[in-house]
Amino acid sequence: MLDRLVGLSMLIAASAVFLYYTTWTLFMPFVDENHPLHSLFPPRVWAIRIPVILIILFTTVVGSFLSVVMIRSNRKKALKAKQKKAT
Fold first, then answer.
1. Measuring CA to CA, how many Å separate 64 from each of 68, 72, 78?
2. DSSP 8-state assignment for residue 5
3. Which string of b and e fits 21-51 if b means at least 16 CB within 10 Å?
4. What is the DSSP letter of 35?
5. In this predicted model, what pLDDT tens digit does every residue of 5-36 receive, in sequence order?
6. What CA–CA distance (Å, rounded) separates 49 from 43?
7. Which of 9, 14, 18, 87 minimizes the number of CB atoms within 10 Å of its CB?
């Protein structure tokens, strides 16, 4: 039951972020600059900066993880080869 609750909360959060971002990037450029709705959203330049920053961060984390896994795997192979050679 807990997994369904977590999944539902993740779905609701993702939907809210999607609706906010879609409203910000697609509909707000057509709203008058003096309208009070503009106070709910950051400047439009951040509509590009935020996804770029997240993509760079995600790529860095995945690349670092893969590098660590490859280095550890290589060390294990080298250790096994060294033990096999010693016997």
1. 6, 12, 21
2. H
3. eeebeeebeeeeeeeeeeeebeeeeebeeee
4. S
5. 999 999 999 999 999 999 999 999 999 999 99
6. 10
7. 87
CA 76/CA 82 separation, integer angstroms: 10
Q: b or e along 66-77 (b: 16 or more beta carbons within 10 Å of the residue's beta carbon)? A: eeeeeeeeeeee
Residue the block writes with tokens 């959203």: 41
Number of helices and strands in the chain (H, E) = 2, 0
Q: List pLDDT tens digits, range 33-77.
A: 999 999 999 999 999 999 999 999 999 999 999 999 999 999 888
| Structure tokens belonging to residue 17 | 């972020």
Around Cβ 6, how many Cβ atoms within 10 Å?
Answer: 10
Unique residue bearing structure tokens 């039951």: 1
What is the secondary structure of 40-53 as a DSSP string?
GS--TTHHHHHHHH
